[in-house]
Every structure is written in structure tokens, then in C-alpha cells.
Specification:
Structural class: alpha+beta
Shape: elongated
Number of helices: 14
Order of helices and strands: HHEHHEEHEHEEEEHHHHHEEEEEHEHHE
Strand content: 15-25%
Largest sheet: 4 strands, mixed
Distance between the termini: 88 Å
Mean pLDDT: 89
Strand order of the largest sheet: 9-12-13-14
Oligomer: single chain
Length: about 325
């Protein structure tokens, strides 16, 4: 019985040699299949598809995200790993739509000649990190994946969103991200470097907008991210604080701040503010973007109301010692 007839009658045998339905054409040849047969099967209307040079998908339907990633890894070689926005997705980060959804950014050893092709962006590097595995997929460490992603686009807002995702949901530190930018190529790093520098005392892109907006107030905040105490103990750490009238401003965002129990924490925080007599203004990040004048009016009205009542006995935590 010929090898070809064996594959035709028992296609499941081929799948045993494939990875998630993806296989190298060279591997097929090693199993006894002629290269012309492989080529014909990948033609339009054939049973297979060519995903990348030398990489075959053993069906002719639309490829899945996993199949495309596996094909990229087979194309890149045994030490290849996924980095950039695609790796961030495998880590579970919410990647803004401005990052290309179809591209797969691949890291390969510097001495290995692999060219970018189709949807694969192949990057040779002398700083090949140890891979982290998620669902069987080798990924660059999240700090590296994030910085590789943000240096490939030039739009500030999506860069900021992805950096925040890495910090708040990926447990990367801003200093760690900045250090990784320092270690690698400087091309495309101006925006993320500037943002990380500005975020030393900030917790979200929304707070950066809030600071810029607050400069337009006749009475801007006296403190940012300062701990507040009362005689009964810790009260909170508002995003902005007007000490002379005990007014707090919180930029409350599901996108940036809420974990599964975040809503309950917010309620507890607001109850502490109320018990201490602190007036608080809560603002959504979307309002900062879409209605900045309305936010300014709310803050001005709140300041007037706070100034009209006796100031409660609260103080900055740094004064507690």
C-alpha cells in the first residue's frame, strides 16, 4: 500500500504528526508525501491551506487564532516565542483595537535567519528571554511583550491603555516596563517612555487627564493621591484632595480600577468618606474625555458647597506621626 493512499484513507494519522492541525511541509515530505501532492492539496478548492511558507493547515476552512499562532511558531523554529500584542492577549490583557488583531509578532534568536512573511512579524534579537507558557504557547515575559507591542504604534491613548493593563492586571511595575524600554531598541519608545515617566505618581490615564483638567480650576487640588485620616483612623486615598475644604475627587473607572470585588470596595470607601464628613465628587473617565466643562462645573459647585459647611476634623496621613 502506497504512502499516499494510506494518508487518503487514514487522514487521522497525519493529524497525529501535526500540532493543532498545523504541520511543516518538510515534515509531510519526511512521511513520504511528494511535494507536488502537498502543493496541489493547498490550491484553492483543495483540502488544505498554506498559512505561511512551508507551513500547512490540514483543512481548508478559516484558520483559528490558535492555528495561526502555532503556524507562526513552526515557521519561526524551536526557540521562537510570541511577543507583542498577541502575547498580551494570551496573558489575558484587554488589548485596544488600535493594535493589529491579525499580526503575530515573533521573537527568534539573532543568529537564526527568519524573515517576516504574511501575518508574521519576525524579529531577531540578541536578548531572547526565557519563555513563559500559556495554554501550550511559548510567550515572551509580559514586560517584554508589552514593550514590544507599544513601540510598534504611535498613538498615545492605546499605548497608555495597554501599559495600564500590564500594570494593573498583569502585575508589571512602571519601573520594570521603563527598564525594559531602556534595555531594548530605542525606536518607537518615545511615547511609552514619556507616559511611564508621567505615571510615577499616577494610577491611570484618566488621572492624567484629570490633572490637566484641574489646572483650569480657580481652586485646583492641593494634593494628589494623598492618604486621609480622621480620629478614627484611615479614611481613604482620593485621586485629588482639597485640604482647605476637605473635598475629595475620585476618578472611578470600571476599565481601570474595578476587580471583581471593586464595587464593594468603592462602597466601603464612600461610606468612610460620609462618616468622616468628607464631600466627594465621583467622575467617570468617559466624562473627562467627553464633557470636561461639565466636570469642571461639578467640581466648582462641590468646592463651593464644601467651603460653606464647617470643615470636618480630617487630616493628611503624613501629619499623623
Amino acid at each position: 500500500m502506497s504512502t499516499r493512499r494510506n494518508w487518503d484513507e487514514h487522514p487521522e494519522l497525519l493529524k497525529r504528526h501535526a500540532r493543532d492541525g498545523v504541520i511543516r511541509a518538510q515534515h509531510l515530505e519526511s512521511l513520504g508525501m511528494h511535494n507536488r501532492t502537498i502543493y496541489r492539496r493547498c490550491l484553492p478548492g483543495g483540502p488544505w491551506r498554506r498559512l505561511l511558507p512551508g507551513i500547512v493547515l490540514l483543512h481548508n476552512g478559516e484558520s483559528t487564532r490558535r492555528e495561526r499562532v502555532v503556524a507562526a511558531l513552526l515557521y519561526g523554529g524551536s526557540r521562537a516565542m510570541i511577543t507583542g500584542a498577541e502575547a498580551c492577549r494570551w496573558y489575558g490583557l484587554r488589548v485596544p483595537e488600535q493594535f493589529p488583531a491579525s499580526d503575530v509578532h515573533l521573537l527568534v534568536p539573532h543568529g537564526q535567519r527568519v524573515l517576516s512573511s504574511e501575518y508574521v512579524v519576525a524579529e531577531r534579537t540578541r536578548r531572547l528571554p526565557g519563555a513563559w507558557t500559556r495554554q501550550g504557547i511559548p510567550l515572551a515575559p509580559l514586560v517584554r511583550a508589552t514593550t514590544d507591542a507599544v513601540r510598534r504604534i504611535r498613538a498615545e491613548e492605546p499605548i497608555g491603555h495597554l501599559l495600564i493593563e500590564a500594570v494593573q492586571h498583569g502585575h508589571c511595575s512602571p519601573t520594570g516596563l521603563a527598564s525594559e524600554l531602556d534595555e531594548g531598541t530605542k525606536r518607537g519608545t518615545a511615547i511609552p517612555r514619556r507616559l511611564l515617566k508621567e505615571w510615577v505618581d499616577l494610577r491611570s490615564v484618566a488621572e492624567l487627564r484629570a490633572r490637566k483638567l484641574a489646572d483650569r480650576l480657580p481652586n485646583p487640588p492641593t494634593h494628589w493621591n494623598a492618604g486621609i485620616q480622621s480620629a478614627g483612623g484611615y479614611v481613604g486615598c482620593p485621586d485629588a484632595w482639597w485640604d482647605e475644604v476637605a473635598l475629595a475627587w475620585e476618578i472611578d473607572s470600571f476599565e481601570f480600577h474595578f476587580t471583581p470585588d471593586g464595587y464593594a470596595r468603592t462602597l466601603r470607601r464612600n461610606n468612610r468618606y460620609a462618616a468622616a464628613g468628607i464631600k466627594v465628587v465621583q467622575t467617570l473617565p468617559s466624562s473627562l474625555r467627553d464633557d470636561p466643562d461639565g466636570v469642571l462645573q461639578e467640581l466648582a459647585d462641590a468646592y463651593t458647597a464644601a467651603a460653606a459647611r464647617p470643615r470636618p476634623s480630617v487630616f493628611l496621613a503624613e501629619r499623623a506621626a
